[in-house]
Structure formats: C-alpha cells, structure tokens
Amino acid sequence: MDSGNKTAIELLEDLRAHRMTAIELLEQTIQRAEYVAETYNPFSVKLYDRAREAAAKADELLAQGLGGPLCGLPITIKESQWLAGVPVTSASRTEKDVIPQETSAAVQRLEEAGAVIFAKTTCPEYCLTGTTSSELFGTTTNPWNRERTCGGSSGGAGTAVAAGAGTLSLGGDGGGSIRIPAAFCGIVGFKPSYKAVPREPCNPSWSTIVSYGPMARTVADARLMYSVIAANNDEHAYIDSLNAHTLQPLSLAGQKVIISEDLGHAPIDDDVRMTFRWVVAQLKEAGAEVVYDNPHLPSSVIAWATSAMYDTWSFQKDKDQPLKGLEQGTLDSMTFGASITEEEFDAAEDHREAIHTAYQAMFERNNCTTFITPTLGVEAFKHSLRHPKYVGSTRITYPWLDWATFMYDANLTGMPACAMPMGLGDEGLPLSIQIQGPRGTDASVLNIAEQLEKVIGWDNSPKDSAAEPKADSNPDEDDSKGIINQMKRARARLAQLRGTVSK
C-alpha cells in the first residue's frame, strides 16, 4: 500500500484496520525520507533503528486492539527538542556533545500516544533566524523550489512534512518559527497558546514566548497532534475545549471575524494582498460576518527582539567562552543581546502588557474572538539570503529586519495562531493566511481554520520540485497532484482575482 499521499488520520485508520503494519509504514516513510534528505536536507539526526523498535512494539499493541491515538505513526521532532539519549545541538557546533538524559514533556506525550519518532529536523543555530541554514547541518531547502528558503527556525520540519517525509512534525515557535516555515512550505502550522503544551525539560532560553506545536498538511492532522501534546492547566481547559468543539464544530455561516490585511503598517506584496482579499470574499460568500479592524499598534519587532535577544544572552553569558565558535549571525544576535540594559529589557517586557491590552480591546469592541491576517507578506525568498530585500515597496534594513511583522504579537501575548495555505503567488510559491484568537481559544482557532481550509480548497499532497513531470501526463487534465499544472492554474486564477477585486 502506498502511504505517500495519505493524511495522518487516514494512515492511522489503515493501521487500526490492519491494512498495513507499523513496520511497513515506517519502512515506506524511511524510503521517502532518504530521498527527501538527499534532495532537501531536512534532517539533523536519523533515528531509524530506534524507530524500528518502536514500530515493532506498536504492531504488538495494534494486534491486540490497543495503543494510543498515534500508535504506529512515524513523526519527526525538532533538533532543539529534548529526547533522552539523543544529541540536542540546536544546530551549534558549540553544543555538539550535549546529550540530554531527559525527554521534553511534549515529546514524551507523543511517544506515550504511540508515535514513532524516526528523525530530528534541522533548525538554524540556536533557532535564532527565520531561515534554516547552519555550519553544522548545512542548508535546508524548500520542496516547492530548491532555490528558495524553507523558512525557520522549524524549517526542517516544514520541509519534511511538505515533501511527504512523515505527516506530522513537532515544531517550536518563539517568533514565528512554526508559522514561517508552514507559510513558505504550504502546510499548516499551529502555535498554541502559551503553556497549553508542556515543554519542560527543555532549553531554558525564551521560556516566556515559546510554544511547541504541530506542523501538518491538514488542520485535522494538526488538531490530532495538538490533542496529544496539550494539557488542561489552571488557566484553561484546553483538552475539554477541544472535545467540546469536536462535538459541536463551528460554521462560517453567521461567524463574526475580524480582518486586517496589513495591521495598518505591515509590508506586503501585491500578490499576497490580492489573494488575501479573494479569501475574504470567500468568507463572505460562506456567510461569515466580516469586520475590518486591527489592534492599532506599531510593529512589535523592537519589543520582541529586545526581550528575545536579552534572554538569549542571559543564558549564553554564563558559559566559559560564550562567544567562541558561534556563527557570524548568531554572534551578531548575542552581541546585540549583550548591549541591552536591564532597564531596556524591563521596558520591553512592560510593553507586552500594552500589546495584550490592545488585542483585548479589539476583540471586545467587535464582540468577536477571531482575527485573520496574512501570515507573511512575501513568498519564500532565495535561501542564499537571510531576509528579503524588499516586501512590497518597503526595503528591509538593519537593525530590525522587520519582514515577519505578523508573527510577533502572538508570541508576546501568548495567543494561539494557526498558519495555513491560501493559494500560490506570482512565482508559483505558497501564500499563507493566519487565524488568531485570545489566549485559551485554541480549539476555536483550529475550528475556524478547518472551515476556512474547506473554502480555500488547497491541494495538501506532498510537494517535490525535483521530481520530473510524468511523460504520459496530459496538461489539459485536472491533475491536482501535478505541481506544474497547479502553478499554471494559480497564475490564471490570480489574474482573474485581480480583475474581480479591482471592479
């Protein structure tokens, strides 16, 4: 049985119905992973022997009608996430000998649910950038176009899932690190509310802004993974809320949503803007009540960078030689962090409350808990660059390099945010839309995302820009799995949209 185009949910149904074994599924996944590894380089560590042992145990459970909700499903986790006995370098040569003796709570939950971890995915050094390249692991490229970045810092995860090397991957998001690669690779990336997913034990840096979350090709698969790693806590009953929404899903008809295509200040390319407007038109046609508003804030990049880099340096500085052996980009970040005073850090932390208050006010004045924006204002740029030179007419310059403006607020406030594909841009690369809500509304955000996914009608089959077109393919056929035909249709559709929206 070919598992390549199936979702996680479909594969789990096959396993439970004994149409395939966990060992068979793993070997198919490893075969695909080897091709993807050679072509796009998304893996930092391969754990095939460990995975084979886990798959054999899963088969024993499945034969008895037992096993958790992910029993036998091959998945990946991020390089920076702890798995006892496995190196956790965070893509830094300075950490290459670090082997944790404990497993992160989120990763442990996945294994307890029966997931089979077959590899760890690449990230940039210390997860500090929105692209994925390091001297330790090299460059990870985009399965839509090998000349383009996959995004970061969970870039290997985005590439692996988009290219079909596993249906699920655990990412981590402290400043868009799940949502950026999800956007660039054309998949779903969900950053849960802060503390919805237990992380410790883990690297201590960025402890107040990072959330671990699922990366998948469908919202339903992302929800499944989230349902395993999330936990009720003193603030919110995340699992109870998920169960309630499963029994009574939301409909777009009559649903009120707040829309902003640029937050009032974010740079955005024309193809992103026009495609976003087309999605908004589909929302209206589906019966949603659309209101246009935003939190009336400037970009939060300064507050985010000040908090994140000060925090990064505060842990690095205690090492014997804190700057030795670092890559230049990491060294620049550390140097910036070292220059921030405690007073500047405190001011940035205080500003987080102002951001939270502004979002609360926006939701309250509109009597609504859904906020929809683009995820990014640009398609994936060349992987030889650390950032795009322009977004729209805005030149991206130092010191802030603010090309991911839509990202920071969700991390600074702890809000849930789901990135999902909304179409292809002028260069045939994925564009993405982001659904956010107040902290604790994770189930609602995923529910709206799934309804919107149906309206958009995205082809979620694995992508492979290195594959040759089939010799016997008919370009006039509706071959939704052919990337070349999809790109042609996307350009034609975008031209049609421009004509429609401009009327």
TrEMBL record:
Protein name (Swiss-Prot/TrEMBL): Aspartyl-tRNA(Asn)/glutamyl-tRNA (Gln) amidotransferase subunit A
Top-level taxonomic group: Bacteria
Alphabetically ordered keywords of this record: Ligase, Transferase
Region annotation Disordered: where it falls in the sequence: 459-485
Alphabetized InterPro entries for the sequence: Amidase, Amidase_CS, Amidase_dom, AS_sf
Amidase domain boundaries: 24-446
Enzyme class, broadest EC rank: ligase
Record-level Gene Ontology MF annotations: asparaginyl-tRNA synthase (glutamine-hydrolyzing) activity; glutaminyl-tRNA synthase (glutamine-hydrolyzing) activity; transferase activity
Record EC number: 6.3.5.6, 6.3.5.7
Entry's family note: Belongs to the amidase family.
Annotated PANTHER family: GLUTAMYL-TRNA(GLN) AMIDOTRANSFERASE SUBUNIT A, MITOCHONDRIAL, TRANSAMIDASE
Compositional bias per record (Basic and acidic residues), positions renumbered to this chain: 461-473
